[in-house]
## 1
Amino acid sequence: MQPSLIVKDLDKRFVGVHAVDHVSFSCYPGTVHVLQGENGAGKSTILKMLSGMYRPDSGEIILKGEPVKFRRPGDARRKGIAMVYQEMSVLPELTVAQNIWLHEEKRLGRGLIRERALMKATTDLAERYGIAIDPYERTGNLAIASQQMVEILKALAVDPEILILDEPTSALTVSEVEKLHAIVKTIVSENKTVLFISHRMEEVFAFGDTITVMKDGRLVDTVCLRDTTEDQIIQMMVGRELKSVFPPKQQEAKNDCVLKVENFGDARHFHKVSFELQKGEILGIGALDGQGQLQLMRALAGIQKHETGAIWLNGTKLNYQNCRRALRTGIGYVPEDRKVQALCLGMSVGENLSMASLRRRQTAGFIHRKEEKQQAQRMVDRMNIRTPSLLQAVGNLSGGNQQKVSIGKSLEDAPKVLLLNEPTRGIDVEAKQEIYKLMRELVARGVAVLCYTSDMMETIGLCDRVLTMYEGRITNELRGAAITEENIMRGAMNIASAKTEG
Amino acid sequence: MNNKKLPGILSDRHNRQLLVRRKNDVLLVYAFLIVMIAAALFLSPNFVKPRNLRNLLCSNVGLLLATFSQLIIISLGGVDLSIGSTISVVNVTAVLLLKENPASWLLAFVVCLAIGAGIGFFNGLLVVRGHMQPIIATLATQTVFAGVALLILSMPGGTIPSVLSKFVTKGWNYTVPILIAVLFTALSWILMNRSSFGRSVLATGGNEQSAECTGINVERVKVLAFVAAGVLAAVAGLYITCFTTSGNPLVGEQYTQRSITTAVVAGASLAGGKCSVIGCIAAVLIMGIINNILNLMGISAYYQYVAQGVILIGALALSAVRSEK
Amino acid sequence: MEKISFKSLRMQKILPVALVYAVMVLLALVANFLNPGFLSGDNIYSIFKQIAFLGIACIGQTLIILTGGIDLSLRYVILLSNVLAAQMINGNESATWPTFAFIMGVCVAVGLVNGAGVYFLKIPAMIMTLATGTALYGVTLLYCKGAPGGHASVTLSSIANKQILGSMNGVAVVWIVLAALTILVLRKTTLGRSIYAIGTNKTSAVYSGIHVPFILISVYVIAAVMAGVTGFFFLGYTESGYLSTAASYNMDSIAAVVVGGTSIMGGSGGYVGTIAGVGIIMVLSSLMSILNMNEAGKQIVQGLLIIVMLVLVYGRKSKR
């Protein structure tokens, strides 16, 4: 049988990272092909190249035997590759039918749009795939799961050869997942190919026929799911080498609780999270993308609201729902996107460093400029921030140095707890090492550190203790020698471990 | 998941229910209009007099057309601050070109529409190639074109053939202006709701990235939207010229703020993606009735400025509160 | 990385501003060349008399543009203050300063409304101020019934007209004091720092613990107060209230701020540049009168100037 889609030697680099390294695999009509891998394995980059959002640096995409090149996202749709994105991209103000046939109205007749034709086409399309949806409803009024159905129908409206589903089940209940399964079955029965990404192992086996496992941007293997087991897949995903050198971890666990979190939850993303953050330890979260860890960090920082639960700092119960209060009580936060959330790129290094602690260095509103400069210089020296002067605009610094400024800003406010969200994202190896050393210094001095990094190797090398998280809940706690890639992956995918660990 | 199994085409009653739910913003505006009419009837017996009603309708056709123009840009997610200047330029040009000879009328109309398209194209270019937000680009072009209007006619003056102005604003026993309003309402409605261009405008305004991923050429849509808005603004300018029967380089100024107010009151969201052509009629009438009542009751006409400012803020506040839910 | 000296980075910040000042001087020289006597003491004095008003009004516009907004109510606040002052004082000496206090109160209220709409209702600054401006215009007309009357007090007239300290009048002195305060606040206080942070990146400012609502609303209050001061002292210059007071100030102030080097996107620039920008706008205006260009020409040139500045700013941004 001819493959419907061949990915041949696809390669893509970004600044500092080889996202996709000469990957090849083939998909066949009438099958569900799963793409699997840890965070940063390259799956989402491949999808973006297949859907036309990115252009490959080299390699070919061969669709139905013909090589194709996409210049803009719409091209892929026209040629027969339709993608259902993870983030909702339906237009809330339009009706279901209008959304589904957006930009494709010509298929239903030339000239002006006929709403009845749209509606009938929607009903027909929905029936064909066994989806129950009301074509006249305003899309914004629908539940998330229904909106997702609209997204799927929108992809199916172009009658694609390849349908890509990126984490389609994250927002669905169990019964809804079953319905989706039936829909996918119908789609493949039409000899289409479905490319499927999911972090839920049960679904991978329930939905999929073939699986391609990626690691560090490279292809590990493509196997038939009938002939594999969960364990074998995990073994394929793990086994990465530690690229960095990490400073030594703490020798023995202290028992001095700085931050106690109990039953912390928001309505949607994380639930019943309870843990204790001890003095002198770096606590890490091990999870795949989108498991609620982002929202948890943000809620702890006060940026997002939380619905349930309480926080104690050194025994005192805290009560905050905004980040100003959180900062005042001593909880610092280093956000994951420094350019957009932490730094003012047009302002100087000195100004950025002091931004969170201005109130400590002023009298009646007037900034103690000399003191500010001294403090900033001390921070620059301590963190080895490479900048020609304090006046340099932060936007001109390299990624690693920008990140140091971001962390330095939080440090100048002398926090008791530091929350770090992706502390080494997008920076070079040398800067990473410096940041690891800094984090060790911090905990040695009594600051409690909670850190989430999507780089699992970093979690393993850096953290004294790891909480694994799956779909908003803490699934496991790993300590010492138990912090291995396999154990973290099991916890992150909620697969029972063969061996139990304390 | 929505669990209505569809055995073929839905019943019309169901569709109607959904339609009502979808369009509840528009219904709200019309409800408000009814309240306004009731208030007007209560406050002044002269309101219902045919002469008053005729005047009310005909004097607001220009604003209605301007509102349709503004609606396109607001649906795109921006605001057009240059609409007033477009109207002014069209006004002074029309006064210049419209002579007694009917043959000159066609030329005048074509030139004015071309001017509207040209100004729109210039705006679109600034937005797409200059990477500016529409509100900033049009803030800048508004000054330039206001100056152009002054250049063409430095002092109020000039006149247009009374045959034309009478026909447009009062012709066939006041049916012509109503027909013009109906015609352009229909055209605007078809453009925004039944053409793929209008759909693309709403998509771009609603979620530009998503529109791009669907295959819509967002840049082309933006430029075309500005051109369309420019042409509609020119039509508004032509009508307003026929109504005022004279040239005034500053005539368009007030229409910028008024058209924004009516478009927002009609239910459009400044964030884009949402539009209601039908709602515009109610919004224009509401604002018109307010002025009318002030007039009839002998209250100072200056209150209309206060009313406009307060209503704009109120409508935006309402929209902000509702979107928070 | 090679060591770039402090001086060179400082130069980077000073250079654009120095450039604007250079352009201003250049234009003045051109004007003097075309119309000898332009730079004479008398003429400079008469220019100075007017420039101070735009200068004070631009303090508010600079602050608002720095936070990422634009103030379109400026002109109307000036007008309202002017008309209120004229009728409330009406030649009565003792009414001068109480009227001032009242006008200040009104302006604070306007600023609070503007700031609340921009922050809490998330209405874009331009639209919010456009709405309040229109409403204030109506209030002004209602107050004076379409025909402003009243008369300045002798105190006010002398502030605007008596020559003191060489080439300046009282208003110029007020301007210099306010200008110094503005520059001081922007450079050396937490308020100033916060304004720049909010304009550069509001999210980062929030996450850094900056009290955004307080700062934002303060900025709008200051802007309204500055407009009120302008309108009040304008009375000394015009002797009576006029509906055409400060008619072109909205666009003039935006042009002055933008030409002076403050980015329309917010976060960079400052009042020092605006001062030169104000100078350029005024000299340009005189220059165009010398060249016999009428009002229309002035508007077109100013509009094109703004477009050019915007294209430069936005063009640079998109190249990143």
## 2
Amino acid sequence: MDAKEKKPLEKVCMICAKGSLEDIYATLVMANGAVMEGIETKVFFTFFGLDGINKETMLSLHTATTGNPAMRMPGGLPFPTMLGGLPGVEAGVSKMMRKQMEELDMPPVDEFLELITAGGGEIFACKLAVDMFKLTKEDLHEEVSDIITIGEFYEMCDGDRTQIIFT
Amino acid sequence: MAEKTIAGVQVNVSEDGYLEDMSQWNEDVAKGIAEEIGIELTDKHFEVLNYLREKTEAEESLTIRGVGKSGIVSVKDLYKLFPKGPLKFSSKIAGIPKPTSCI
């Protein structure tokens, strides 16, 4: 045996507060990855992150084409900020990104949520943010198990092999 | 690389315990590996294992999403067959390399 005993993660709690394509997918990939590793997983969507579980918006998430220095043209040239601001450009670029993700077998957001819950992961929405955006449980995807306060979420994050990840 | 005897068969395994050569695999080896993990194999398990082996031979990438769409099991049932490691444990028992997919 190694001198250092391994202490594998037992629980991962994730908080997603941003609503761009990459923010939502980063959360989903990490959450699903944790479930696949047998780690207990809870995800809390708040503020603009609610777009990822709102049935109206979840399948048409956008990536920012302005103010995003990592944005490149196909072929690798820098993406001019002025171009990114033109009507329809952000929608077009986002659509292209979603298509490329699909080619890598990355599922659409609704199917991703189903993958996570199929393995026992749980999805929650933030009560304060739901009230603020005037949403109800009916606006949210079926895989969302409850609308809860941050206090209730923290209560679920107990255990000394638990990590909270904010994306 | 290490040598190991599983179900009377001499096999080469990686550091993580995955078979290095998928042709050294047979159903008894599968049962031996499954027992170490704590899974008792049924016919349904073998359907999944054979599917994974076929896909690996065809050099296609494996994801739980792909298994879910194969028509053999749903993702939910895949988790029931291989608790806490739907792709990891199934790959190990199927005698194929450690999965490189994140989905």
## 3
Amino acid sequence: MNNQEDIRHLEKEIVKCARCGGCRSVCPVTIAEHRENTTARSKVRMIEAVLAGEIELTPAVQARFEKCLLCKACKTNCGSSVATDELIMEARAKLVKRNGLNPFKKMAFTAQRYRKLFDLGLKMGGVFQGLIFKSLPDGRGKIARIPLPAAGLNLRRVVPNMTSNPLRSRNPYHTKAQTPTSKGKVVFFTGCTLNYMYPEAGEAVIRILTRNGYDVLIPDDQCCCGTPAFTSGDVETGRILAEQNIKAINAQDYDYVITACSTCGTALKEEYKGLLKESPLAGEWEKLSAKVIDISDFVVKYCDLTKFGKLPLKITYHDACHLVRGMGVAAQPRQIFKAIPGLEFVEMKDADRCCGCGGTFSAVYYELARKINDAKVDNIEATGMDYAVAGCSACRMHITDGLYQRKSPVKFLHTAEIIDKAYEAGRKEGKV
Amino acid sequence: MNSNILNELRNIVGNDYVLSGKEDLIIYSNDATMFDHLPDVVVQPASRDEVAAIVKVAARNNIPVTGRGAGTCLSGGAIALKGGIVVDMARMDRIRKIDAENKFAIVEPGVITFELASQVAKQGLLYPPDPSSWKESTLGGNVAECAGGPKGVKYGITRNFVLGLEVVLPDGSVVETGNAVDGDMCGPDWTMLITGSEGTLGLITAITLRLVPASATKKTMLAIYERLEDAAKTVSVTMASGIIPTTLELMDNMAIVATEKALKIGLPVHAGGLLLIEVDGMPSTVEENAKRVSEICKECGAMEFKIAETAAEAENLWAARRGVAKAFGQIAPCKFAEDATVPRSLVPVLVEKSMEMAKKYNIPILICGHAGDGNMHPTILFDKRDKDAEARAEKALDEVHIVTLELGGTLSGEHGIGFAKAPYLRAEMGPVGYKMGQDVKSVVDPANTMNPGKMFNYEGALH
């Protein structure tokens, strides 16, 4: 089978690559492994070779395309503006079409298409997780009792507790503004990690919004944003999930769509575009896309930064890839931290370097993901702060594991939890 | 490559560090030039002894060996022109020693230039050579190619900092040249023979580098011109005035526009040219020199002159200059990135001639460079899918080389000869000098296994 025609349209991106090798200094995988075959330059080179008929879209090519965190650092730093992320996702889709998907991923993504079944499965996971996992005594999460390599579970890896009572089950569809008059209605797109693993952070988001005068709508028929599927090359599942979310959200009467998971936010705001090229919902997506906003960005733009009370915590901040490079949010959380009285904030080195999670990447390449994360944890610890903060629950999961592995006393909080705590302190001080 | 040899290599470095799949060979087939050639195998050693063992296997089987650092070479140095073994030095990345008192460092070849510069800066020291690719490039590659950089005008290029080397010779034996003592002068300087030899005489496995004290203070300035020619004139006037800036960098309009497109930092996109100037030293000298530089810029016709007030502002100006090397692609994907170097007083002539050539061959030529030491980068841009443009680019390239030599200049200030510039090497060195190069090579590497087909062993037509 000849694959050239299948990827001919990628030529417009690959011809831009000047082969300068600048991606070597920013790629977390290259930095960890010292291998040219992990760089963005090498991926461009492989596509070029496929187009020239020198190689086919072989499983070896696929393996090299899979070993990428999609952190977008190469794209942001590319002097020639090669859209490396799109190139990698498109190539993965073609490679999956030709060589198939890893069976575990295939099963997981297929299950996601059946929203209610998926929901039930994860809720049951919350009930039965004790069979597979044992809890850590400090409540930080769980580790596997038996290794499950197919599911990306290494014996030493700490994963968060799954809740049997997810965010969307414990909160009503409509939570009214706490103020006498409502400033508007916002849809809260919870995403899976806040829903099933970190519902407390999700509740912090709801309180921030209602405290500042917004009605919060949580449509029950929203589902996974689709990122794990479409970034793995399962475009079909990605499209089905995207369409379901667009329908669920656009059925509401809303002013904004709030995300507190930057991966979901980037998908809703940017990445659905590529998935929906031939979808009848492309127009609907454009309406939605313009309204998607991350919680920290929303707080800076539409909430009251003078109502924060004294919060004497010592924090450092990690820029999640999808937040800083996907949604362009970096200044906003820092502006918020500055506005919180008593909060001590110290920048870490390489704050915007990927933590090594990369979603399914950390399941497939756990030890490599650990190595990348160890550098992040070094930088966190070097600040001497008590808390690491980020606006992403996938980063949270991976960094928490990294902190646990070395028994670090540093704890983790979502940006929304910091904001919520500061508002709560403000309320106690009478700043209402 | 036959499986016995592959197994021998695996026994030396371990299975994980021998890459022989077609996919990886393609990935390792090019450096930062547009050329490529497939190696037969890529090996990633972790120590000198592993490098020596690999080279012995190669010598026994008469297999070509090409060293590779970060693959950022601009003259084809890291391309395995005759196939064989590519030795990727990236794993040998330890800084073995920084001796602040005696001001030297000992490093392995895979250490990234920027990493060393950052580490010595923590101790109040400076490692000056700073090629644009310094965040990626390795010191082994820098020494092999004799890299330069913006600081070259005051401090010199890589060769001015190499005190000693440990080199695996083509038969697998190991030689140590020079030492950490700055004044070592026992016999001919073998260290300098290897520096800039581009992997044609052996593989560097350790480097002793001279460090200098970091200057007390510095000032970074930006002068903006309507006409590129005026910027070029400022360069020769400044250098003639007796001031030695740390940096005197020139960018033409195309370079400014491309960089602005990539970095979006507010560069003057309508300017014909700009100069980035830095002076360093004791505070009183720096003040005085900065004042004098600003006067010269204005006399030569600068529309605007700025002094960076903060470290962040200075860093932005630097980001602009370093950004050029990676922003070429904004104009066209392929480039002949030349490093034609002429006497400082003739920089304006080279700039004018390059502008004429762009018109004559109807091809974009971006002009930037380390103007202060005459090391210019007329960069010819094209898309290799357009065969006509490629042919015009090749003609322009020929003319750049010829003009440079006519001006009494040199083909390469820092990028190396490789095979991209090898056709012109005899014209630069003269027939006797060229023969001497061939003779030296044939004594050190009689079987011609080290980076064959390059420099003095180029097999194409010579100018």
## 4
Amino acid sequence: MITKIPENQICQAFDAMMIMPEKTSHITLSLKKPSTSCVAPAYVYIEGTHGNKFLCDYHYHYEKFNGNYLDYDDSGLVDKRENVLIDERERVKETFAKNVTTTETLGKTCFAGSNKGRTTSTANNCDAEALVKATDKNGNSMFFCNFHYRKIYYRYSSNGSNYEDFYDILDERYRMTKTMIEESLSIKCI
Amino acid sequence: MITSIPENAICQSFDPRMNKPEEVLKNHNTKEQPNTSCVAPAYVYVEGKHGNKFLCDTHYYYEIYLNRMTYAAPNHSWKEIGRYMVDERERVKETFAKNVTTTETLGHKCSLINMYNVGNLGCTADALVKVIPTAKVIGKINFHSNLNLNSSEVGIFYCNFHYRRTYYRFVSNGIVFEDFNKVIDERSRMTMTIAEEADRLTYI
């Protein structure tokens, strides 16, 4: 029986949306299409409707947010949810940069937005407080909340590239007061 | 350790592509998102890089096909999806209609066109099933709409793979397929194995 996330365990999500061009047009890394697998560290273990698997913080929330957990039996519609057996998402905070005192992200909101109405949310943009600043080689900056920063960071990693090779990162996530669960519950777009 | 597919095990795939953009829902006159889960019988069990799960024949191959054509991190190839695998796909043939003598699908190809690159190769497999829609699905996505509408004048032709995919998309959304379609099932003519059929698909 699994009681904790094994060391070096990576996410086991299968993300079919990665073959949709609008999802990954910003990643032009390899000659192949973007990966439908994920190499981010796992922080959650679930058993249920969609099998038994380890998931990263992003893909756990993605599956929960986008999943229409419907099943039909003789009595009609059945809503089946996953059993979350292990949730170690709070350990994400161990990855935050240490000894940071800058406040450049203060007052900024997350840059992320939905793709062409594909989200089921009525709010199409993330208006969460920004905690990370990413600046490209031309000096153009984007601001991200923790959730969307991690999403873009590992999308690059899962496609064999390092986000930090393309952007200078200012990580001010030390300012984050919410728990990971609280943050994910407040996310308006995936 | 799982060595055979338990009776009544259903597919455990998660398919976020079923979550349709608002414009698609509007085109189908519905506000109801399709199911991102699948209720088809499971014929495969895998333990591997995408977790441990039961999958139907369609979703197993869908996962293999998509993962095979995309980037893979080192030691993370599509072959790792089924590090351990139970494959009972050949049992799909038990679902084929028996004692069929018609040959209406003979000479026809699967109707599935390439929706993402219109004009590019769609499914080129021989048709084995003819479906004649008899009633319109109201209030939900109509999964037949992904087909060449011109072919519906004489019926929609499917290979086994795409027939089963369409059939269970209806079922997974609470629609009895036969209530909306007349089905002529000539899959008894199929000579390939289910695995061979999947491996030869030109389009998913």
